[in-house]
Amino acid sequence: MPEGELCALFGPNGCGKTTLFKCCLRFLAFHQGSVVLNRRDVKSLRVEEIARQVAYVPQQHRPPFPFLVKEVVLMGRTPHLNGIFGAGAMDKQKAFDALRRLAIDHLADRPYNQLSNGQRQLVLIARAMAQETCLVVLDEPTSALDFNNQIRIWQVMREMAERGTTILACTHDPNHVAWFCDRMVVIQNGRIAAQGDPMEILNHRLLDTIYGGSCSVGQTGELKLVLPREVARRSALDLE
Ligand SMILES: Nc1ncnc2c1ncn2[C@@H]1O[C@H](COP(=O)(O)OP(=O)(O)OP(=O)(O)O)[C@@H](O)[C@H]1O
C-alpha cells in the first residue's frame, strides 16, 4: 500500500477479510504468500516491532478485566514504552487527545467493560490513534456506531491518511467506500476480484457480482450512491 492511503477491504460475509488481517498481523500462521511491512517480512519481526508499526482495531473485543477507559487507551502507548508503567505525561496527553478527538473524553474514568458496543468500538479506535503507528488496520470500525459517529470515524481516518498514516479498513458499506476511500480492494472466492479507485470501479456490474443484483449505483454530480434496487427506482438519481 502507498504511504498515506486510505484503502477499504470489501467483500461478502465470510470471504476472509478478518482472516487476512490476522495473517498480516501474525495472529494466525499462514503457509503461502508473504506479508512485507516497511520492506521487511513480518515473519522476521518481533511482536514488539510489529506493534510499533501497526495498530489493530479488532471487530470484537472481550475485556478480561475492568480497566478504565483511559487505561485501555494508554495501552496503545505500550509498544513505545518500557511496559505500561513507563507511561509519562506525554503518553497520557496523547491518550487524552485521542479520547477528545473522538468526543469520548467524558468516558475516561468509566470501566471499559461497562460500555456499550459502540462506545467500546470508539475506545479501541482511540487506542489505535494513541499508538501512533505508520499503518492502522481496522476490522469494520463503524459496525456498532450511530450515523454521526460513523461519519466522525471516516473523517478521522481521512485526516490521519492526509497526515501520512496508511489505513486499511474493512467495511460492508459501499457508500462509505465511495465517499471516503482512495482505493478499494474487493475479495471474493479467495482472490482479489477487483481493485482501484472506488469512483472508477464501484459500479452495478461489480455489485451484481458480489450481491447478485440487489443494488443499484446512482450518480449525482461527483457523488456515487449505492441504493437497494427497489429504492433506487423511486429516486431521481441517474442510475448506471
Ligand atoms: N476460528 C475459525 N475456525 C475455522 N474457520 C473459521 C474461523 N474463523 C473464521 N473461519 C472461516 O474462515 C472464513 C473467513 O472468515 P472471516 O472471518 O475471515 O471472514 P470475513 O470476510 O471477515 O467475514 P465477515 O464480513 O462476516 O466479518 C469463513 O468461511 C469462516 O467460516
**Class by alpha and beta content:** alpha/beta
Number of domains: 2
Task: Summarize the amount of helix as a percent range.
Answer: 25-40%
3D shape: globular
Question: How many strand units?
Answer: 11
Number of distinct helices: 10
Indicate the CATH topology of the largest domain. Answer: Rossmann fold
CATH superfamily descriptor of the largest domain: P-loop containing nucleotide triphosphate hydrolases
* Strand composition percent: 15-25%
- Radius of gyration using CA atoms only: 19 Å
Low-confidence runs (pLDDT<50, min 5 residues)? none
| Secondary-structure arrangement, i.e. CATH architecture of the largest domain | 3-Layer(aba) Sandwich
**What is the ordering of alpha helices and beta strands?**
EHEEHEHHHEHEHEEHHEEHE
Q: Could you describe the largest sheet, including whether it forms a barrel?
A: 6 strands, mixed
**Spatial separation of the terminal alpha carbons:** 30 Å
Q: Provide the CATH top-level class of the largest domain.
A: Alpha Beta
Secondary-structure blueprint:
Elements (H helix, E strand, L loop, with lengths): L5 E5 L6 H8 L11 E2 L2 E2 L5 H7 E4 L11 H6 L14 H13 L15 H15 L3 E5 L7 H16 L3 E5 L3 H7 L2 E6 L2 E6 L1 H4 L2 H8 L3 E6 L2 E6 H5 L4 E2 L1
Parallel strand pairs: 1-6, 1-7, 4-5, 5-6
Antiparallel strand pairs: 2-3, 7-8, 9-10, 9-11
Helix pairs in contact: 4-5
Bound molecules: adenosine-5'-triphosphate.
Adenosine-5'-triphosphate binds next to helix 1.
